[in-house]
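Bench log, entry 3. Co-assembly request; chain sequences pasted below exactly as received.
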Amino acid sequence: MGVLVIAEHDGGSLGPVTRNTVTAGTRLGEVTVLVAGEGCRGAADEAAALRGVARVLLCDDAVCGQSLAEPLAALLAGIGREYSHLLAPATTFGKNLMPRVAALLDVAQISEVIEVVDADTFKRPIYAGNAIATVRSADSTKVMTVRGTAFEPAAAGDAAAPVDGVPPVAAKPVSRFVSRDLTQSDRPDLAAARVVISGGRGLGSKENFAIIEALADKLGGAVGASRAAVDARFVPNDYQVGQTGKIVAPELYIAVGISGAIQHLAGMKESKVIVAINKDEDAPIFEVADYGLVADLFEAVPALTASLE
Amino acid sequence: MKILVCAKRVVDANVKISVKADGSGVDLANLKMAMNPFDEIAVEEAVRLREAGAADESVVVSLGTSASQETLRTALAMGIDRAVLVESERDLQPLAVAKLLAEVVKREQPDLIIMGKQAIDDDNNQTGQMLAALLGWGQGTFASRVVPASGEVEVTREIDGGLETLALALPAVVTADLRLNEPRYVKLPNIMKAKKKPLEVIAADELGVDIEPRLEVLKVEEPPKRSGGVKVADVAELVDKLRNEARVL
Amino acid sequence: MPLYQAPIRDMLFAYYELHQGESLRTLSGFEELDRETVTAILEEAGRFVGERLLPINRSGDEVGCLWQEGRVITPAGFKEAYRDFVEAGWNSMALDTDYGGQGLPKTLHMLVDEMICACNLSFSLYPGLTNGAWEALDSYAAPELKELYFPRMASGEWSGAMCLTEPHCGTDLGLLRTRAEPSGDGSYRITGTKIFITAGEHDLTENIVHLVLAHTPDAPAGIKGISMFVVPKILPDGEGGLGEPNNVACGAIEHKMGIKASATCVMNFDGARGWLVGEANKGMRAMFKMMNIERLAVGTQGLGIAEAAYQNAVAYAQERLQGRSPMAGQRTDAPADPLTVHPDIRRILLTMRALTEGCRALAVWVAQLIDQAAGCSDPEERERAEELVALLTPVVKAYFTDTGFEVANLGMQVYGGHGYIREHGMEQLVRDARIGQIYEGTNGVQAMDLAGRKLPMAGGALIERFLEPVRAYLRAREGDAHLAEFTVPLAEAADRLDSAARTLLQRSAAEPAEIGAGAVDFLQLFGLTALAYMWARTAEIGLSRGDGDEAVFYAAKIRTARFFMRRVLPRAEAHYRAVDAGGECLMDFDDRAWSQR
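Structure output for the full assembly:
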């Protein structure tokens, strides 16, 4: 029995976290990737070329279009038992799909796996990352989502794995796709961005957030905020990074004018490199920052943006 | 339309939790408890649909110890009509919760179920999807907008990178995301009124489903502490470090 | 931003374990108020104040109120917060259900008020003044006036203001000059200038109901000729709506040390129409009714500020790493240990905690006495409760506000330099706390009320209302070695208080200045003794609870009680000796020498 990784894709190519999920899958056995959708041959070929992928299953059919959870779950309920582990990225795609699959298979689902201990045992964060639980599954099939930031993305390999077709499973249509409205901003999504620049109450006003945005644009990053900045209405709620907002783990996180309240740290402390810019040298944010700059943010941030020309 | 809304009692979002020294779990003794914030949004949505005339009855369900009655009373004070507690002293994992809820659904026959997308204790984000699967209903997870129409409900979902709108045939399950609404503050007179609203208690065993935990928690530990790094003197040094040491630029 | 978590567990302790919260349910109207409901109300209140009032506290302080051609604009967010506050029903918690209030116990209202004050003292004054004006009107106003004003005051649409002070008279109201001329139709024309009028003008409500003290033309001079009038900013149209504007104008607002988001107004009445409240020349009676409630409310402000300071000081002390512990158990993973390892920081935090929780325990006692007196059918029991409340009212006002200022200062000290800068909000607590010692009768005036007015009442027997239960408590525990570390210091303090009271009464017969000379020290001695009584009883409850789920909570109660007895209560001895030393050494100072140096 092998491992089945369910690919997230846009038809032509794989979603970024799928590659990390493949890496997690290789720790558990031989990896088969399922690419299900409509017009998704391109994504299947990309998956077949990944190192560690032994086989690709392609279900290219209108039934699976738009990645709706109901038909995809019905498909996986049929073929899922042939695998010891079913893995999907812990993105909104995987989080939407995998619990439905698990319930159809009458097994538990393990969310946001950050470490594979052995074939039955996994680590996952709870309480917004303030604790790590090690859990062991007693189910015959392990269904789980994988936190991308915890695994390296699988690289392209030397040879392409075979791509085999699988038929879709017709299910009673209970949901219908209406529309999709992807954010037009040139900035990446906060939760998936490689770089995040967050501003805190130190920015002082809504208007001053422009210097954060300018730096984000320079670095191709997303803009975040502390709860204090959201409470002060400098930015909308959806910018909030923290225990009650978004959990982010970018490669580079730059905290500007953020003191580093516990609830904020919970949302960003998994970032690979943390930079803090704050005028208060005793701000708790410096306790987690790899690089701290004690400075007036209104001078330092524009200077930083300018020096990246 | 009848709405069933689900609410879990969790440690208050503002409380800093600590891991027990023996690694057996999180120390929950005497912590302030509250309704799961995402469930609170679900309750608010149900109340708004009821107030707008889109629904004619709303029922809130919680699963857990008798202490969860407090959470149910909060939902009643927010405006839900009546409450059901599925009482159990056991550790109820999402699959067990979904199975118990499916039994409650058989009794209540709602047209729409709304619950939070995840609970802030276990962070599972599973129950709504599992319940939809067990019932064979459509699911609209991470909802930021819910508009019932004839025989359908249109749900706008927050997905990575934007929004997606689905139309779900009723009955359906919707899970609430942060931006669906801003929950109201409970009005003082409504706290008193909530006391008089019906609250039914059902023993979990009575529902006759398998609630055996499938996952065994072997250990709970603190996340690795991040140690502070270095202070840089100026912007130039920062850029240099990011380029040549951290290699992130 | 400073943090705030409503201390609900401690409030429930005071409400149910230390005092008789459950027995309030025997009173009419409170039957439904079980512990679950009380908890739910406190939790919702805690949430509201933390989410809506705390975030606008610092910004309100930074911006302050703005005066613009007679209008007062409150800082950003105050209008919305007030609207939601009223919408949720918090403004009318303890107001009469007949007029749309919630009719909840004063005890519960006091605890919620503490939370409001902890998060935003300036905000608390707007609904607070409405409560005070209500009290005065409730006891003395004619039914028509109540019908006209109460529904709108309960709904929060109209707020209240108390217009006493004039430019030349504050404490001595007998000197006031505002005149009220009868206009023949039953109303009066009020003319004069009032200053320091809290919430005299603002933009939170559509109308403001002023209660104004003035002399009628034929009134006796001085305090015996003062009448109270209700003077609305906009005249009611008689059908519950608003009619013509009245001749009431805000001439300016004060620029103050603290509570900057509270509008402190100069109010000009220029032939404004007003209606008599109660009997002519009996204005002070109505004013005192209101002032007694307000004094307790101001005491609660001190308590709220103290709680806010304690919580933030603890959070900072736990996070801030500085220096090494003098004991074993240093943190090896950090370059320094948290502030909490240092003995002097522990002294500060425990002092803050002992004073704050002690004041809360006392406040709940007084509030429950008020509820019991109001709902009691036995006139004798009622009188006893009212006498005890009358005795304790100046103690609560003065001792709590002194404590609020002390604790806020101690909180700033924990932060060091970071407490002195604005960023952490600790200096704002100090500035905001300071007014409590001044307004609603300075703490010196409170001490005079206690020592000069209350003490001689009933032939000096009033103090027995307090000492009697303390002695009964001590008698019942005589020889209990387990409790001795708490009961022995309490007994000593009670004896000192008794002795100081006798000394003052005896000496004042021959030398009236002895009262004023000893009053403040006497009040401090009283406050400390009352807290000692609360802490002894608290420790006893803690000891009886043992190792349950809440072992940590009760153990902390016992240890804080111990700290209070050993490290705070000794202050009582100094105050006793100061009273005992008498006033001669201050009265014989040569007045010519003040400025000759």
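The mean pLDDT of chain C is 95. The CA atoms of residues 296 and 393 of chain C lie 6 Å apart.
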